Amino acid sequence: MNPRTAKNIHRHELIGLNIEVIKSTDKQLVGIQGCVVDETNHMLVVELINTNSTTDTKQHLSIPKNNCTFRFQLPNKELVDIDGCVLDSRSENRIKNIIRKRW
Question: How far is CA 100 from CA 32, 45, 46, 76, in A?
Fold first, then answer.
């Protein structure tokens, strides 16, 4: 499989990528940063790290895909902005739908 790039990120697994919410209809979500740990049909589960306390505590937050624009950091440190509407389905379905549209 091809490496993740800005052009094909929507066809790859998002788990493990660093993410930031840069735009959302819910203003409380804007600015949230973390690592994607799970993906469902309409949500991304992001692991936030709270370094404000004496011990690092990890917290999981579910963020709706459809209402947000995300900034992903690829393994090569490139930043990619993606509208959540493009991602609003299961990862395995996103790949199948794109391949079917080509034929």
Answer: 34, 28, 30, 29
Residue 11's pLDDT is 77
Single pTM value for the model: 0.81
pLDDT of 71 > 90? The answer is yes
Residue 32 backbone dihedrals phi, psi, to 5 degrees: -65, 135
The tokens for 58 are 């990890």
* Domain 13-102 homologous superfamily, CATH: Ribonuclease P/MRP, subunit p29 (2.30.30.210)
Distance separating alpha carbons of residues 12 and 91, to the nearest angstrom? 7
Q: What is the mean pLDDT of residues 41-57?
A: 79
* Cα 31 from Cα 24, distance rounded (Å): 10
